[in-house]
## 1
Amino acid sequence: MDVISYGGWPRCVRLSNGAVDLVATTDVGPRIIRFGRPGGKNLFGEIPGQMGLTGGQEWRLYGGHRLWHAPEQQPRTYFPDNNPVAWDWDGGRLLLRQPVEATTGVEKQIEIRLDAQRPRASIVHRLTNHNPWEIELAPWALTVMAPAGTAFLPQEPYAAHPEALLPARPVVLWPYTDMSDPRWSWGRRLIRLRQAPGGGGPQKCGIRNTAGWGAYALDGQVFVKRAAFDPEAQYPDFGCNWETFTNADMLELETLGPLCLLAADGGSVEHVEYWSLHEADLAGDEDTVADALMRVLADA
């Protein structure tokens, strides 16, 4: 661990194990702004014109990885994370803690651990209710990926008719989703969404992802994140525990925890993601790409 200047922010915390490095901001946040090979490309997106900014009441995307609470609503979801966060390093765990949001009464924490040697990390997201009443929400972890890559989400395993008579999953669309947009590929084994720098309007879909993984490929590197799925839980957005969004500037991989009631005066919920970074060629037809992804996941 060391404290560095990054992207115009003078006090960022960098964790590195030699295989991967991760940079978290402390001048704003909680936010992880970088994940990549030491000295290599940042797999997370950085928003030009917003890097290094602090203060103010306008919500900024900044880039990187952030924690929200769902369902999405204005203004509740968009409380700005433009001010410093408290942080603590115990020799193996970095804890980022945002002051309680003035308009929601919710406190956000992100807890980070790197694997000792491999390019892997575990990320614990924690929401705590400091209101004198209970509130309903779902933890929502969003990762802005670097532009010009492709996101991959798994389809449910194929089963033949007439043996399979019941539906396998919801696929949830937003009013601005255009399924004919060429950035989408709706395959038998994979859903693919390509980020096209400078081109195309917003696109989004959500799924009930029982496999619990999603991936993003860029320049021969593959970022994988995983989060557990609870078949007994109720998820927001018509039952989505995974969502992906893109526009002309970036693409997001998003996981959601179950909806829950947080008790007054300290009720808390955690949502855990597991990240890994791999090298793989995800070119070719769908079966070739899906088989390559299965090999990546076996090593995740």
Note: Residues 2-298 form a domain with the Beta-galactosidase; Chain A, domain 5 fold (CATH 2.70.98.10).
## 2
Amino acid sequence: MNAIRELIQTGESETTEFKQTWTNDCLKTLAAFANTRGGTLLIGVNDAGQVLGWNGTDAEQQAIATRIGNKLPIQPSLEATEEGGRRILVLRADVAHGIAVPYESRYYRRVGCTTQEVPAAQLGQFLLERTGQSWDSLPSGASLAEIGEEAVRGFCRRAKTRLPNLCDDEPVAAVLQKLGLLNEDKPTNAAILLFGSDPQRRFISANVHMGRFKDGTTILDDKMFGGTLFEELDDVMRQFRQYLQVRYDIDAGVDTVPGQAIVHRREVWDYPLNALLEAVVNALVHRTYLGTTESITIRVYDDRVVIRNPGGLPGGITVEQLKEDPHPTIPRNPLLANVFYYAELVEKWGSGTTRIVGLCKEQGVPEPEYEADEHSFQITFSRRVFDEVQLRALGLNERQIEALLAMRSDPMVTNRGYRESHNVSNKTAYADLSDLVERGLLKRVGEGSAAKYMLRVTIK
């Protein structure tokens, strides 16, 4: 099979586009190819991949070449060829290295199999990336005096495994130099975000706004975290432990001493903490800090956690690709990504989103939802849902399972109600219910005979 036939059979993609006839829209497509990963434009093929043919003359082919030269700063190849007994025009555009290619003063890129204009909110970041720069590598205008020495030393301790040659007592400037965080001997934007004594003085939106919500309008708690990115991450994870609920998986075993039973308790949070950690790291590292006054926001509801950061996905990446392993990796802030990797807070570039999915599946939590538009990226974790099979896997007795399943319709029970439903003594009912409270499945409200037990999880 020849290469053109294979392209047609594969269909349109990030690097392939079909057009029935030549129009000015083809110039947008060629510019988008040059601004993304290059690509091939086939004239005389419809969207369904049917070869209709291109009947242009040699003079018309030359006119197209001239039109491209007048409108675009690139020189794609043009070739008329036969396919399926019909003549088509093949244009190939290489990726333009070191420049952004405009068409009519606008910039385009490929997203999946579509050509899209770069939104105004992302234009600054796009132009930096196309010229081989990143925002985090630009000089911040700060001096070394604004770098916190203890923050640098803390990082050196965290990075011992992946940077064994980094010494605790090295001068701060030497550490920054090794990490690529100096630009003409001045701290870069990344250096201030990672190690600055007051990062928000220069980057007012570089913080995390976190809250606990009962519903869309009822706010139960409100926090704003600042400082370095490492400090923000630590603060957020501590706050998750305040907002979220935990239960315990309990296993009984026998110690080496005959007859001595030991109990192993494993904390199980509403959502895997490592998955939340990955999501927050992704937000801190991959958000846009350029041209925005928005903070990262984290909303914790009874049934979900929503993490949103300013800046959509980097050009050419789709939400669907984020769940593929591997998937394309275009870090918006590569210096930040590198430092978080050295600190062992990132496994490897491009693995975070798939790791999040895997961690959720491992715990039995619904797969998170990823959403993106031109302004933001958002991940939503949904609360775990237990069914009868999962409840049995927890080692609960039949009374406890029956009670929890019954609470799907009435999510509250009393000690008396439990005794009467299962014909057990007060002592047995108290033991069963207390065990469910300790595991984090029920919440006790009140004391003594007036105590009520409420569901803390959702049961299918």
Note: The mean pLDDT is 89.
